[in-house]
Structure of Leucine-rich repeat-containing N-terminal plant-type domain-containing protein:
Amino acid sequence: MPSLLYLDLRFNSFSGQLPDELFNRKLDAIFLNNNQFQGEIPQSLGNSPASVINLANNKLSGNIPTSFGLMGNKLKEVLFLNNQLTGCIPEGVGLFDELEVFDVSFNSLMGHLPDTISCLQDIEVLNLGHNKLSGELSDVICSLTSLVNLTVAYNFFSGLSQQCSRLFNIGFDFSGNCIPGRDMQRPQPECSVIPGGTLNCLRIPTPRPLVCASLPRIIFSNNMQSSSHHTSSSSYP
């Protein structure tokens, strides 16, 4: 079906791995949520020109591919929630200046948030809840002016910037973390060992302040270094 633009297989019982070819097609919308797909998301994800991709409520595992940032620049909605994804949130997330929804909740993602999130100026729904993310919640997230729904509940974040402190008081969900002096946080024993504390997210240093227009060059450099490391070392994390 070479002319197919909209693939909707939601709410079925399809299983098995996602084929590489899926993301090589010129599909504008991919809806595979609420099935039984398993295995890793193919690296070919970066070839997809889709504006909406929904893989929620499956059994997908492994990392979000580093090629994620190479997807088409018209991406508006990404829903990977309620899978079994691990590893880091890729730096490439910041390349999508038209992205409105990014939901990776109910997985096992770890590490610190990439600074590149601050470039998501159109983001309205950002749901990172129920993972194992850590570090400080900084203005990287809380300065996003289009946010309508921010959820970082039930992670292991341990601090708030001044801007985030303001959001804490207006209804966004920061509960179930390790933020001192705040209500509805984890018991202290749960905060003594941070999951993924030694995880290497392979971040490339970014300028301060971050210049969003420079992101494509930075992310491309990161992907090249990751690929080189992967092919030259069997101990790649």
